[in-house]
C-alpha cells in the first residue's frame, strides 16, 4: 500500500503545501489562521495538490518503459487496470476544477492551464531538451507566486524571492534528474539535455543556475534585513549561510564533475534538502 501512495510523491506534496501555508501566514502582516481559511487557503492547497498529483500519475502512466529501465523504485503502475488509472486522473481533474471554482475564475483558469501543461509535458515536452525542465520550474514558481492573487497584502518582494528560489532550484533538480535518468532516456529516444548536448553542458547549465540563485539570494538578503531587529537578523543570516548558501555552493562545485547515475542521484537529494531548508527559512518572518 505504501508503494501505491508513493505515486503521489507525498514528500513533494508536503513541501508544496508547507510552502504555500508558510508564505500565506508569515509573509502577510495581517494574516491569521481564520483569515487564511476565510480567503480560501484550503481550496488553494487542494487545487495545487490535485494538479500536482495529476501530473505524477499521468507521467508515471506514460513513462512505464523508461522507469523500468532506470529502475525507479516506485509502485508499478502497469499492474493497475487502465480504467482505474483513468478514474484516478478523472477524480484529480474534478478536484482541481472544483477547488478553482470555489476561489475565483482566475484560479479555475490557472488550474485548467496547469492540467493542460502537465499533460503536454508528459506527452511531448519532457522529451525535448530544456523545454520540459523549464515548464516544471515555471509551474513551481507559479505555485508560490499565485498566493499574491489570493492574499494581496503579502509582501511582493519576499514572495518573489521564495517563488524564484523554488523555481530555480526545481529547474536545477529537473536537469540533474535528466542526468540521473540518461540511460532510459537514450533507449526510449528522448532528446533531453544530456542526450542532445552531453553531460558537460548539463553540468555547466546547473552550475550557472546555482551561481545565479546564490547571487540573487545574497542581493535579496539586503531587502529582507529590514524585517528583523539586529539580533534576529544575525541569526537569520547565519541560518541562510549555513543551510542554504553553503550547501548550494557545494552542490555547484560538485556538479561540475558529476558523470554517473549515482552522483546525479546524490545531487538531486541534496537539492531537495536545500528546497526544504529554504521553505523553513520563511518561519523567521
Provide a descriptive summary of the structure in words.
This protein is mainly α. It has one domain. The protein has helices spanning 2-5, 10-26, 33-39, 41-62, 64-70, 82-103, 105-123, 131-145, 147-150, 156-180, 182-187, 193-196, 199-224, 230-255, 261-280. It is globular. The mean pLDDT is 93.
- Counted up, domains total 1
Order of helices and strands: HHHHHHHHHHHHHHH
Helix content: over 70%
* Count of DSSP strands: 0
Largest sheet: none
**Large-scale geometry:** globular
How would you summarize the topology of this molecule?
Layout: H1 2-5, H2 10-26, H3 33-39, H4 41-62, H5 64-70, H6 82-103, H7 105-123, H8 131-145, H9 147-150, H10 156-180, H11 182-187, H12 193-196, H13 199-224, H14 230-255, H15 261-280
State the gist of this model.
The protein has 285 residues and is mainly α. Helices cover 79% and strands 0% of the residues. It has helices at residues 2-5, 10-26, 33-39, 41-62, 64-70, 82-103, 105-123, 131-145, 147-150, 156-180, 182-187, 193-196, 199-224, 230-255, 261-280.
Keywords for this structure?
285 residues, mainly alpha
Amino acid at each position: 500500500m505504501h508503494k501505491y501512495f508513493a505515486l503521489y510523491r507525498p514528500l513533494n506534496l508536503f513541501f508544496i503545501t508547507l510552502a504555500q501555508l508558510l508564505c500565506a501566514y508569515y509573509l502577510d502582516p495581517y494574516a491569521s489562521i481564520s483569515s487564511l481559511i476565510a480567503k480560501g487557503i484550503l481550496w488553494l492547497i487542494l487545487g495545487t495538490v490535485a494538479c500536482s498529483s495529476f501530473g505524477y500519475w499521468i507521467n508515471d502512466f506514460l513513462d512505464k518503459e523508461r522507469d523500468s529501465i532506470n529502475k525507479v523504485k516506485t509502485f508499478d503502475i502497469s499492474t493497475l487496470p487502465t480504467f482505474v488509472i483513468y478514474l484516478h486522473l478523472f477524480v484529480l481533474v474534478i478536484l482541481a476544477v472544483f477547488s478553482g471554482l470555489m476561489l475565483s475564475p482566475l484560479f479555475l483558469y490557472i488550474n485548467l492551464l496547469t492540467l493542460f501543461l502537465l499533460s503536454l509535458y508528459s506527452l511531448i515536452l519532457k522529451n525535448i531538451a530544456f523545454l520540459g525542465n523549464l515548464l516544471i520550474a515555471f509551474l513551481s514558481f507559479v505555485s508560490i507566486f499565485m498566493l499574491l492573487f489570493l492574499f494581496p497584502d503579502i509582501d511582493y518582494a519576499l514572495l518573489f524571492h521564495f517563488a524564484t528560489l523554488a523555481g530555480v532550484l526545481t529547474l536545477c533538480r529537473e536537469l540533474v534528474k535528466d542526468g540521473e535518468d540518461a540511460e532510459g532516456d537514450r533507449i526510449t529516444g528522448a532528446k533531453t539535455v544530456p542526450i542532445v548536448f552531453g553531460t558537460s553542458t548539463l553540468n555547466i547549465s546547473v552550475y550557472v543556475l546555482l551561481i545565479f540563485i546564490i547571487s540573487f539570494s545574497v542581493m535579496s538578503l539586503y531587502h529582507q534585513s529590514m524585517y528583523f531587529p539586529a539580533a534576529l537578523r544575525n541569526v537569520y543570516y547565519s541560518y541562510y549561510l549555513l543551510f542554504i548558501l553553503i550547501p548550494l555552493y557545494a552542490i555547484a562545485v560538485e556538479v561540475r564533475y558529476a558523470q554517473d547515475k549515482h552522483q546525479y542521484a546524490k545531487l538531486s537529494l541534496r537539492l531537495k534538502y536545500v528546497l526544504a531548508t529554504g521553505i523553513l527559512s520563511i518561519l523567521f518572518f
